Amino acid sequence: MAASSSRVMLGPLVAAIDQGTSSTRFLVFNAKTAELLSHHQVEINQSFPKEGWVEEDPKEILQSVYECMERTCEKLTQLNVDISNIKAIGVTNQRETTLVWDKETGEPLYNAIVWLDLRTQSTVERLINKTPGRNKNHLKVRRTGLPISTYFSAVKLRWLMDNVDEVAEAVLTHRAMFGTVDSWLIWCLTGGKSGGVHCTDVTNASRTMLFNIHTLDWDPELCKYFDIPMEILPKVRSSSEIYGLMKICSSLKSGCLSGIPISGCLGDQSAALVGQMCFQEGQTACLLKVVLIYLFNCYLLQPVMSEHGLLTTVAYKLGRDKPACYALEGSVAIAGAVVRWLKDNLGIIQTSTELEKLAASVGTSYGCYFVPAFSGLYAPYWEPSARGIICGLTQFTNKSHLAFAALEAVCFQTREILDAMNQDSGIPLTQLQVDGGMTSNRLLMQLQADILCIPVVKPSMPETTALGAAMAAGAAEGVSVWSLRPEDLSEVTSEKFEPQINPEESEFRYARWKKAVQRAMNWETTEPISNGNGETSIFSSVPLGFYILGSMLMLIGAKYIAGHMNKSGV
C-alpha cells in the first residue's frame, strides 16, 4: 500500500467491531484479499466491587467503540484510503456478559455483569438442588446444551431483577431491555432510544440458558423456569444479515460510516471459527484469548451432546435461510488473565512480553504447578468451588519458574479440553489451529505442541476473530461483497510448531498437573448464610464456624470452672 494508485484499486472494504473482555478494537479489511488495512484498540477497565464480582461500565464499552472507529478512520484517511468504500460492519463480542438498560432514556440500569462473575453461585446451587437428582445438566440435552452455571446470562439477569431496584422497576413498567454486549452495541449504533434495533444472533443467544438450540428461538419454558419475561429479550437473528444502519454524528471523521449496514454478528469464539474457515465437520479451532481459552469442534446441521464435560453450542448461522451449524466447545475461565494477575497482583513482570523472556530464561517450572482457578473450574469439570493453587514449591523456586508454570497452565487446560473432545468424537485430532492474542507468545506455542503431542498451527494474520465478523457482514444478503464459497476464500498462511519432547515426558507433566487440579477442588464452602442484611455470616465457612463455636464453649467452660473453684475455696 505504498503507492496511492494501489489504494485507489482496493475495492470494497468491510469493518469489524471486536469488543472483548479486556479491550475493544475496530478493524478494516479488504473484502477481496482479507488483508487487514488498519485498526485501533482501546483497553477496557474492569471493576471488582466484591470478591468474585466482575463488572464493566456499558457506557465505557460504547465509548471505546466510538473512539476506535474515529481513530481508525483517521488512520485510513492518512493512508489515503477512501472510507466510503466500507460497505458493511460486523460485530463480534465477549459472550454471556449481561446488560439491562432503559429503552426510553437509553441509560444502562446497572454495570455489565461480566461472564466470569461468581455472585450468582448460591442461585445456581438452589436451582440445581431443585432438579431431579440434583443434576446440573438437567436443561442440557433437550433445550440449552449447557449446564446450569454462573457462566451464563440467565442467572445474571435473574440477579439483576432481584437485587437492583432500577432494573425491577423498569421490568414492571415495560421499559427494560436485556442483552449481551452485541445487543447493547447494535441498539446504540442503530439509533438507541430513537429507533435502535434490539436484536442478537443465534451464537450469542445460545449462551444465555434461555435459548433452545433445537428450535433456534427463546424457549418459553426456560423463561418460566428462570422467571424472566420474554418481552425484555432481543429478537434472535442469523449471524449474517442486515440488522440496521449505522447512525453517527456527521461532524466526526467516522460520521461517514452513517448509513452503512451492520450485517454480521457472532460471539467471539464463533467468529474465530468463521475467520479460520472452519466450514467442514470435524474442523477444530482453539482461541487463546487475553482472558480465557476456547476450543471448538465443528459439527454441521445437528447438535452433538458431550459425555465428557463439554458444551453444545451454535457455531454460526450464516444467513436467514441458511442452516445452523453446531459445535462442541470447551471453555476455560482463566488463561491469559494469569499474565495480568502476575503483572498487576504480584508485580513480577511489568509487561506481558516479559513473561515469555522470564519463562524462557529457565525453560522449566522445576516441578511447580499453577492451577489458575480464580473463578472456579470450567470445562471439563464445571466445579465452581475450586480455587487457584500453586504447588510443588521448593526453596529453589523463583519467579522465572512461576512464569513458566503459568504458561504451562494454559497448555494443560487446553490438553484437558482436547482429551474430552477426542473422547466425544472418537477421532483424535492430528493438529490444532490456534488464534487470539496469546499466540504472539512463541514459547507458549511450542509448549502447547509439546503438551498436546501434536503440531500447533498459528495463522500469520492473527486477527481471525475480527476477520470472521467481517466475513459474515460482507457475505450478508444485500451486501454480498465477500464470498464464502470455498473456491473464493483467500488461503491463510500459517506457521507450524512441532512437538519437541517425547510423549513420556509430556504425560508425566500432565499427570502432575491433574494431581494439582484435584488439590484445587472443593475449596470454597457453599450456600453462604445471610445475617438478614444481605451480608454473609462468618458461620458460612464451616471450619471457621466450628472454630468460633468451639472457642466460645471453651471460654464459657473456663469461666464456669473458675467460678466453681472459687466457691470451693480452691
UniProtKB/TrEMBL annotation:
<dbReference type="Pfam" id="PF02782">
    <property type="entry name" value="FGGY_C"/>
</dbReference>
<dbReference type="InterPro" id="IPR018484">
    <property type="entry name" value="FGGY_N"/>
</dbReference>
<comment type="pathway">
    <text>Polyol metabolism; glycerol degradation via glycerol kinase pathway; sn-glycerol 3-phosphate from glycerol: step 1/1.</text>
</comment>
<dbReference type="GO" id="GO:0005741">
    <property type="term" value="C:mitochondrial outer membrane"/>
</dbReference>
<dbReference type="InterPro" id="IPR000577">
    <property type="entry name" value="Carb_kinase_FGGY"/>
</dbReference>
<keyword id="KW-0067">ATP-binding</keyword>
<feature type="domain" description="Carbohydrate kinase FGGY C-terminal">
    <location>
        <begin position="302"/>
        <end position="476"/>
    </location>
</feature>
<dbReference type="GO" id="GO:0046167">
    <property type="term" value="P:glycerol-3-phosphate biosynthetic process"/>
</dbReference>
<dbReference type="InterPro" id="IPR042018">
    <property type="entry name" value="GK1-3_metazoan-type"/>
</dbReference>
<keyword id="KW-0496">Mitochondrion</keyword>
<dbReference type="GO" id="GO:0004370">
    <property type="term" value="F:glycerol kinase activity"/>
</dbReference>
<dbReference type="InterPro" id="IPR005999">
    <property type="entry name" value="Glycerol_kin"/>
</dbReference>
<dbReference type="InterPro" id="IPR018483">
    <property type="entry name" value="Carb_kinase_FGGY_CS"/>
</dbReference>
<keyword id="KW-0808">Transferase</keyword>
<dbReference type="GO" id="GO:0005524">
    <property type="term" value="F:ATP binding"/>
</dbReference>
<dbReference type="GO" id="GO:0019563">
    <property type="term" value="P:glycerol catabolic process"/>
</dbReference>
<keyword id="KW-0547">Nucleotide-binding</keyword>
<comment type="similarity">
    <text>Belongs to the FGGY kinase family.</text>
</comment>
<feature type="domain" description="Carbohydrate kinase FGGY N-terminal">
    <location>
        <begin position="14"/>
        <end position="275"/>
    </location>
</feature>
<protein>
    <recommendedName>
        <fullName>glycerol kinase</fullName>
        <ecNumber>2.7.1.30</ecNumber>
    </recommendedName>
</protein>
<dbReference type="GO" id="GO:0006641">
    <property type="term" value="P:triglyceride metabolic process"/>
</dbReference>
<dbReference type="Pfam" id="PF00370">
    <property type="entry name" value="FGGY_N"/>
</dbReference>
<dbReference type="InterPro" id="IPR018485">
    <property type="entry name" value="FGGY_C"/>
</dbReference>
<keyword id="KW-1000">Mitochondrion outer membrane</keyword>
<dbReference type="InterPro" id="IPR043129">
    <property type="entry name" value="ATPase_NBD"/>
</dbReference>
<keyword id="KW-0963">Cytoplasm</keyword>
<keyword id="KW-0418">Kinase</keyword>
<keyword id="KW-0472">Membrane</keyword>
<keyword id="KW-0319">Glycerol metabolism</keyword>
